[in-house]
Amino acid sequence: MQAxxxxxxxxxxxxxxxxxxxLVYTPGLSRLAAxxxxxxxxxxxxxxxxxHASDRASGLAPGHAAALRAPPSAALRALVDATLExxxxxxxxxxxxxxxxxxxxxxxxxxxxxLLHACGNATLLTRSALGIVGSRNAxxxxxxxxxxxxxxxxxxxxxxxxxxALGIDAAAHAGALQGAGSTVAVIGTGIDVxxxxxxxxxxxxxxxxxxxxxxxxxxxxxxxxxxxxRNRTISGMTRGVLVVEAAERSGSLITARCAGEQGxxxxxxxxxxxxxxxxxxxxxxxxxxxxxxxxxxxxxxLRIGDTARARGFGDGNASCEDAMTSLxxxxxxxxxxxxxxxxxxxxxxSRLQLDAADTQASLLAxxxxxxxxxxxxxxxxxxxx
Length: 385
Description:
Helix content: 40-55%
Number of helices: 18
Order of helices and strands: HHHHHHEEEHEHEHEHEHEHEHHHHEHHEE
Radius of gyration: 24 Å
Structural class: alpha/beta
Strand order of the largest sheet: 1-2-6-5-4-3-7-8-9
Largest sheet: 9 strands, mixed
Distance between the termini: 33 Å
Number of strands: 12
Strand content: 5-15%
């Protein structure tokens, strides 16, 4: 991933990077233990040089102490060389916990990442940000909501942070790139690994117009345990998290839970009581998340003066009638019966006392026009545009 804007490369030398990499990536040494050593000794190099007496005082296990002080392995030397080469390229930045460019809110959480790789405009990491997350298997309506909220909130000055996953994450990044602000993608792989591959083009756009961030070593592949770690970083560097769509057991709820534990605001968009991907959002709302219908709801909660409505999101002044196409006007009785809850074609035909074949044909035309969405199981749902 390569940024087009030339930004200063990392200023850390080889010895400093080697010390940080050894501290962060020593097998079995937890982030909390590494952070405790860093607080005790001040720098990563001081941790490596510390005496065994200080190891005992800090409660460091003998095996971890030996790993920290042993001569660098061939694998570590290769990682140091690769990281130095990577960080020397334009637009690549290696940020340690002590650097001025490290995300300020991320320092406040209980287990902050001590090292971040950033590709793109790393200055975005210090700006006011909001996380937007949701289902990978999002509905069309969910993706539209994510994109529009992201664009409006970016227009209001917020940096939109998400996880570069399929579905809601991808829509949030795309929407933010259209706005006046920008976006940060926090990934669960090495910064040089694109995952999922289907989002490769989007990853390039984010690196060019925003920033991609990873706390994992170069070359780290996608592994399931990495994504909850990634999620706590998304919430940790933001003022709040918006969940757009989520099933009851969605990974997005992990991000929301992390946000709550970190003292961040949690927002959720409600949906139909019949929709599987609304159940996670409804659960969050029951547990205290703020129900939001427009970007203005979020801006008000965060006490940000700019409004999304002035930039074309929300209720607006245009009437629904003005926005309707001729197809929608012709199918108005069908749309009014459909509303925004999932319903089968047969049930619609029964409600309106229409021929089933004619109803299917009308729904197909509306689907092709992007007015309704066909859901799994053959149900249909009206899209709010």
